[in-house]
Amino acid sequence: MERFIPGPDTERQYRDTLGAFATGITVVTVTGPDGPVGMTANSFASVSLNPPLVLWSPARASGRFEAMTGADRFAIHVLGAQDQELATRFACSGLDFTGLETETTEGAPPLLAQGWIARFLCRRVAHHDGGDHAIVVGLVEEAARRSGPPLVFASGNYGAFTPQQKRRADI
What is the pTM of this model? Predict the structure, then answer.
């Protein structure tokens, strides 16, 4: 076991320790001042069922931060196990939508037509300071899902989820 106090000198250790928590991977899309913008994020969570609220947290250091936090509407695409290429694409550059089929509606962010197992179209209702990130809360206006296993991220690696037992129907 390794113990440490999180701080500037232990930032890598802290990041690696956070990586022990497996998360799903999303691509968040908005319409920026110059067109569509996307960002890979694993900081997605449900906040409330009633009303239907979700959150995600873009990094302030990102060149896409202003577009992401300034948009009134955004879409969160939960990626499937086969969609690692999409995660990598939007982790590196959020401006390259070349070759991607998108659905566009007046006033809505670009919606990826493929490469997701769940999708949430949201209206931003709050934006909070979160240190070197922001916390963006959205009211879910529409949701969609497809069957398939999720893309998972843990300890700096992508992978797939393998269930150990069948889900109980009453959960």
Answer: 0.91
- Range 84-90, long-range pairs (CB < 8 A, 24+ positions): 84/151, 84/158, 86/27, 86/112, 86/115, 87/25, 87/27, 87/40, 87/151, 87/158, 88/40, 90/27, 90/38, 90/39, 90/40
What 3 state SS string does 15-34 have?
A: HHHHCCCCEECEEEEEEECC
For the chain, the structural domain boundaries read 24-152
pLDDT tens digits, 116-166: 999 999 999 999 999 999 999 999 999 999 999 999 999 889 998 888 877
Total residues found in the chain within this entry: 171
11-34 per-position pLDDT tens digit = 899 988 988 888 999 999 999 988
**39 vs 41: CA distance, rounded Å:** 6
CATH code for residues 24-152? 2.30.110.10
